[in-house]
Amino acid sequence: MKFTTLIKTSIWGILVFFLFLLNAPTATAASSLSSGGAPALSQGLLPVQSTKTPSITNTISSLITTTAAQVTTKIAPPENASTTNWWDISTDGTLTIHSGHTLSFTDTQGGQWQTWPWTDQASTIKKAVIEPGVSAEQTLGFLFAGCTNLTDVEGLSNIKVNTVTTPGHPAVNTLAMMFQNCKSLTTINLDGLDTSSVTSMDSMFSGCSALTNLNLTKLDTSSATYMGNMFDGCSALTNLNVSNFDTSSVTYMGYCFLDVVH
Predict the structure, then answer these.
(1) pLDDT digits (tens, 9 = 90+) for 36-45
(2) Cβ proximity of 183 and 208 under 8 Å
(3) Are the C-beta atoms of 146 and 180 separated by less than 8 Å?
(4) What is d(CA 71, CA 148) in angstroms, rounded to the nearest whole number?
(5) What average pLDDT does the structure give for the chain?
(6) 122: buried, middle or exposed (CB in 10 Å: 19+, 13-18, 0-12)?
(7) Handedness of CA 250, 254, 258, 261 (dihedral sign)
(8) Is 157 in contact with 192 (CB distance < 8 Å)?
(9) Is residue 163 over pLDDT 80?
(10) I need a surface site. Which of 30, 174, 200, 250 has the fewest CB within 10 A?
(11) Which helix (H) or strand (E) holds 184?
(12) Smallest Cα–Cα separation from 137: which of 178, 170, 167?
C-alpha cells in the first residue's frame, strides 16, 4: 500500500513540475548588469517567445479554414475572353441578335468585314430575329451571307442605323453581300431599315435564287455609288419594285440585273 501511494505521489509531482515548466516565461531581463552598470532593461522590451505548442484541435481547425478558402477562390476570366451573349442560334435554327448590342466591323473578321461570329454556322440558320434595341455602325455587309437555309428574317426595322459619322462612331456605309446566296429566301421586308448613308450595295441579293417578291420602294439609295451585281442570280423574281430608286450618285451598276429573267 505504501509503495502504491509513493508511486502516485511521484506521478503527481512530475505532472506539477511539467505544468510549471509549460507556464514559466522563457526569458526575463536581469535586474542589473553590474553594480555600477546601466539601468536594467524593462522586461516588456524583451521579446518573449512562447513555448506552447498549438493544440491538435486548433491545428485541424486552421487547416479546414485554409482548405475552404482555397476551394471557394474564384479565378477571374481573362479580359479578352470572347463571349456570345449578344447572339445565339437555337436548336431549331433561329439566329437571334439580342437587344443592346451595336453591330459593327469590330464583330467581324476579314479585310472586307465578311466574317461574322455565326458565319461558320450559316448553313444551320433557318430564321433570323433582330430584337428591338439593336444598333449598327460602319457595316451590315455579309450579315446573312451564306445562310443557304434561311427562310425568314424578322426585325430589320429594329436596327438603329448610325447614319452620321462622329469620332469613334462611323456611319453605316455598306450592305455589300448582305443576303448573298440566301437561296431559300422567297421575300425580304426591308421597310424601316435606314440606308440613307449606304454607299455600297454590291451583290446585296446576289445568288438569292428563290426570291420571288421584292418591294424596294422604301429603300433609300440616295447615297449609293455602287450597285454592281445587286440582283445577280435572282432568277425566280417575278415582282421587283425599284420604282423609287435614286441612282443619281451611282457610278457602277454592272451586272445589276444579271439572270433576272422576268
Answers:
(1) 444 444 444 4
(2) yes
(3) yes
(4) 48
(5) 81
(6) buried
(7) positive
(8) yes
(9) yes
(10) 30
(11) none
(12) 170
* Tens digit of each residue's pLDDT (9 = 90 or more) over 2-44: 555 555 556 656 665 555 555 554 444 444 434 444 444 444 4
Query: CA 161: distance to chain centroid?
Result: 22
Residues 6+ apart with CB under 8 A from 198: 172, 173, 174, 175, 220, 221, 223, 224
Assigned C-alpha cell, 51: 513555448
| CA nearest to 144, candidates 91, 85, 103, 106 | 103
d(CA 121, CA 44): 76
Residue with cell 431559300: 184
Give the other-Cβ count within 10 Å of 260's Cβ.
17
The SS3 assignment for 239 reads strand
User: Which grid cell is 127?
Assistant: 430564321
User: For residues 163, 164, 166 and 168, what is the CA-based torsion angle, rounded to 10 degrees?
Assistant: 20
Band the pLDDT of 81: cuts 50, 70, 90. very low
Give the cell for residue 250. Answer: 451611282
The conformation of residue 21, written as its DSSP 8-state character, comes to: H
CB-side neighbour CA atoms (13 Å) of 186: 1
What are the cell numbers at 172? 453605316
Rounded to the nearest 10°, the torsion over CA 28, 29, 33, 34 is: -70
* Secondary structure element (H or E) that encloses residue 97, with its range: strand 94-97
Cβ 179 vs Cβ 186: under 8 Å: no
